[in-house]
Amino acid sequence: MTARRVRSSAPKSDNTYYYSGMLQTIEEFVDHALLAELFARIREAGLDASLPVNSDPAVHRMFVRVGLIPPNSEAPVATKLVEEFIRLLSEDLSRTPAQISLLLRLFSCGMYGVMAEAVCGATPRCSVCQITRKCEYFSKTPLTAAESKLPSFKRFLRGGEDLVSDAELLALIIGGSKPSTACTLIAEALITKFGSLRSLVNSSCSEMTRLEGVTETIAVKIAAACALHRKVAEESRLRKPAVRSGKDFFDLYHHKLRDRKKESFFVVLLDVQNHIMKDEEVSVGSLAEASVYPREVFSTPVREAAYAVAFVHNHPTGDSKPSEPDKTLTKRLVECGTLLGIPVIDHVIIGDGCYTSFFDEGLI
Predict the structure, then answer these.
(1) For position 78, what pLDDT does the model report?
(2) How many CA atoms are closer than 13 Å to the CA of 19, on its beta-carbon side?
(3) How many whole angstroms separate alpha carbon 252 and alpha carbon 257?
(4) At 190, phi and psi to the nearest 5?
(5) DSSP code at position 144
(6) How far, in Å, CA of 68 to CA of 41, rounded?
(7) pLDDT, tens digit (0-9, with 9 covering 90-100), for 209-225
(8) pTM for this one?
(9) Which of 50, 190, 271, 278 is an S-S bond match for 97, by CB 3.0 to 4.6 Å?
(10) CA distance 48 to 111
């Protein structure tokens, strides 16, 4: 947090209302004792500083919907407003910034293995939310009958992705501001063929052009839009965030690794404050395993004078449970790190929507 004070977009009483409303909502879907245990663990770990949620796109999206961040705010401005919200609540409620950050993550992401689905996620569940009384998204004037008949281009300008279907959004990419009926039909066929937008995003141009009506031009437009999204996500990920738990590694790497068909093994270089200096992919293996050698793993950390390292790799099966080879390799790498004076703080395995932290599980 910078020394310069940033004016909050809502008074303190409103901030407290949002916090209590989010907490009440979450308590309907989470075992109260489990939530209390999470807060207790944060206190025991001495995590007083905010967890790295201030630049999380999901948190920003939730703040925009509620009205705490003005629409179309640039990322630095939005980040500072989230930081200010966390700081004010920390002062008003005697909660640590880390505890408030945990609540924001649960509400907007449904993470930590505590909630299966976010309340204010990609598709907001307004019917169960306790902060709708002051939520701009919820109170937004619905489309009139005439407005609902507007072209998708006009509806997108009015309210963004919330006022168009997935197929209409894809048709706008294919056909521009005036997508034809053919564009919409192709978009619907693509979503049907691949089963989900996520599968489509991870498909190649050649796979898309196998569908009748999908030309190379159409495939390139879709692939380029998906590539731009990945680059934005990667840019956010490489802003040297601080990591304090296996969950932080999961948040930073699961979008990058979860859909890979082969195991990819990354070494993550950390400075003395646990900020990520850089990461490096040191091995790409078969579906079942990756060949990882200590010399390759530690060459860059030694050259870059890293204070510590962590390892992140994916399981293409979607199950993050470590195998015996995973455990053996980790033990070997920890021993090498000890000899080199570069401690290994964690090894995180990424699955499909899940993760396993060797540190959290007491395996390191």
Answers:
(1) 82
(2) 24
(3) 10
(4) -65, -45
(5) P
(6) 29
(7) 888 888 999 989 988 98
(8) 0.43
(9) 50
(10) 20
